[in-house]
Amino acid sequence: PRDTTVPFIDGVNYRENNYYYNDSSISVMKSLAGKETFLSKVEELYGKYGTEIAQYRVYMRRWCQRTKDCKFCDLEAEMLFMLIREYKPRSVFEMAPKAGYSSHWILQALTLNDQDHNQKQNQNESNVVGNTTKETQLSQLHSVDIHDKSVSFMTERHFQDRWTFTMGDYRDLL
């Protein structure tokens, strides 16, 4: 017989329908689940990150004209950017980045998160006498695709240390 229990691992992770979740991902899903909560969350996030999006959108529109390869919608990219800015993951996994439009938005959000983190860390350390500054590990984007088209479009030097591309079928890489 199939195991139908939902095991708790360290009181945090559990399985449902063969997918593993943790408490933080459940709270994100709940905050975006209903129409009212979704719209209020989107309004909140645009209020918080709208200026950054407007500034980066100008750059990405020029990037789209240069590459002639934008298939990902602005709204989807902006939502992705805001969720990464808000929930601050240290590592993001992306499948099939194609030319890298969504990759750029992800990397920009990760970069800004790291800058915010470093700024807060430096402020905290300046209040402590004799404290040495620790080097913070960069947030990372891991992209997997069966072609390497995105590699030719990921030319920004400030993204290169935080982006890893693996060519291949993700199922073969697991």
Structural summary, described in words:
The chain is α/β, with parallel strands linked by helices and 174 residues long. Helix content is 55%, strand content 14%. The protein has seven helices and six strands, in the order E-E-E-H-H-H-E-H-E-H-H-E-H. It has helices at residues 23-31, 35-67, 74-87, 101-126, 149-153, 157-160, 170-173, and strands spanning 8-9, 13-16, 19-21, 91-95, 140-145, 163-167. The strands form two sheets. The protein has a three-stranded antiparallel beta sheet. Strand 1 (8-9) and strand 2 (13-16) form a beta hairpin. Helix 2 packs across helix 3, helix 2 (35-67) crosses helix 4 and helix 3 packs parallel to helix 4 (101-126). The longest helix has 33 residues, at 35-67. The two termini are 27 Å apart.
Brief overview:
By secondary structure, this protein is an alpha/beta fold. The chain is built from seven helices and six strands. The relative contact order is 0.10.
How is the topology of this model organized?
Layout: E1 8-9, E2 13-16, E3 19-21, H1 23-31, H2 35-67, H3 74-87, E4 91-95, H4 101-126, E5 140-145, H5 149-153, H6 157-160, E6 163-167, H7 170-173
Radius of gyration: 19 Å
| Assembly level | single chain
Spatial order of the strands forming the largest sheet: 1-2-3
Q: How would you sum up the global shape? A: globular
Overall average residue pLDDT: 78
Q: How much of the residues is beta strand, in percent?
A: 5-15%
Strand runs, count: 6
Instruction: Give the fraction of residues assigned to helices.
Output: 40-55%
Biggest beta-sheet profile = 3 strands, antiparallel
Q: What are the segments in which pLDDT stays under 50 over at least 5 consecutive residues?
A: 1-18
With helices defined by DSSP (H or I, 4 residues minimum), what is the helix count? 7
- Which class best fits the helix and strand makeup? alpha/beta
| Spatial gap, N to C terminus | 27 Å
The run of helices and strands is: EEEHHHEHEHHEH
